[in-house]
Amino acid sequence: MNKDEKNIIIDELVGNLKEYQYVYVTDSSNLSANSNNDLRKLLHKNGVKMQVIKNTYVHQALERGDIEWGELKDTLVGTTALLFASNPKSPAIAIKEFRKKSDRPLLKGAYINSDVFIGDDQLGVLVDLKTKDELVGEIIGILRSPATNVISALQSGGNTIAGLLKTLSEREN
């Protein structure tokens, strides 16, 4: 591969690193070709793009794109596959699902909204992450709940008072 071809790959990687907010660094070594294809299909189904790439290219792309990964750079050893996603937890869910029948891919780390998660033990944390839409929905539910309870109490109390007054007025007659 000549220098121009390498630069094209690195520029494409810089574009992906800037386009996607959520990047997972994994180790998918020791997977058979069939297992690797199954993993790619599952990832694609979950909206995740996978790219197996040389660690030196990732380092060069981070420098060229002026992208700060902090401690995540230290995970760039051995076989590396980058997973790019638009949803922070889709790669984690896909990995967890795939690992029901395999011990790979291993999670080396993840870059989520400038937060860094290091190690395979963080997979559970990443699966349980709430997306922005889920958090907004919970907040709306929490805010609506007291108002709904107050309105409900007022309505039921109003009916009770009105019923009580009607009953008392009928007794007097």
List the helices and strands and how they pair.
Elements: H1 3-19, E1 22-27, H2 33-45, E2 48-52, H3 55-64, E3 81-85, H4 90-98, E4 106-112, E5 115-118, H5 123-128, H6 132-172
Antiparallel strand pairs: 1-3, 1-4, 2-3, 4-5
What does this entry look like structurally?
With 173 residues, this protein is an alpha+beta fold. It folds into 2 domains: 3-129, 2-Layer Sandwich (Alpha-Beta Plaits); 130-173. The protein has 6 helices and 5 strands. The protein has helices at residues 3-19, 33-45, 55-64, 90-98, 123-128, 132-172; strands spanning 22-27, 48-52, 81-85, 106-112, 115-118. Strands 2-3-1-4-5 form a 5-stranded antiparallel sheet. Helix 1 (3-19) crosses helix 3. The chain starts with a helix and ends with a helix. 23% of the residues are buried.
Task: Based on the model shown, name its key terms.
6 helices, 16% strand, 173 residues, Alpha-Beta Plaits, alpha+beta
Major sheet description: 5 strands, antiparallel
Q: Give the helices and strands as they follow along the chain.
A: HEHEHEHEEHH
Write down the CATH class of the largest domain: Alpha Beta
The count of β-strands is 5
Q: Report the CATH topology name of the largest domain.
A: Alpha-Beta Plaits
Structural class: alpha+beta
Average pLDDT number:
87
